Amino acid sequence: MKRIGGLSVIFIGFLAVGLIAGPSVILKVKVQTANVRTEPDMSSAAVAQVKLGTLLESSNKVGDFYEISIIDKDGRTVYGFIHASVVEVLGSEEEKVTKEVKKVKEPEPMIKPQRVEPAYAEFKKMGLGLFVGASSTSDYGSGLAFGANFYLGITKNIGIEVGGLRMQTTSKDNDDLTKLSKGKLAIMPLQLSLMARFPLGAKIVPYIAAGGGYYLNSFTLDAAIVKSWDDLGIDLEEAIDNAFGFHFGAGLDFFVNPNIAISAGVKYCLAKTKGSWTMKEQVSSEETKGTLPDLKLNALVFGAGLKYFF
Amino acid sequence: MNKTIRRYGWLVFAGLVAVILLLPVKARVQESPQGTVFMPPPPEHQKDLNPKLDFALQRMTDIYAAEGIEKVREYAAQHKIDMKGDYIRVIAEADSGGLGSAGLQARVSIICGEIEALGGQVETSYENLIQHLAHPGAIQAISQLPTVRFLRLPLKPFPMILTSEGVAKTGAGTWQAVTPYRTTEKVKVCILDLGFKGYMSLLGTELPSSVTVKSFRADNDIEGGEVHGAACAEIVRDMAPDADLYLVNFNTEVEHHQAVDWIIDQGVKVISYSIGWTNAGDGKGTGPICDDVKKASDAGIIWCNSAGNEAERHWEGIFSDSDADNWMNFSGSDQHLMTYGSKCYASMNWDDWGTWNGSSYSGSNNDYNLYLYYWSGGIWHLIDSSTGSQNGNDWPTEFVGAWASVPLYWALYIYKHSGTRNCKLEIFISGSYPTEYNVPAGSISIPADSRYAVTVGATDCITDALHYYSSRGPTHDGRVKPDFTAPSGVTTQTYGDRNFYGTSAAAPHMAGAFGLISGKAPFSVSQIKAILEGRALDLGTSGKDNLYGIGRLKLTK
Question: How many domains does chain A have?
Answer without folding.
Answer: 2
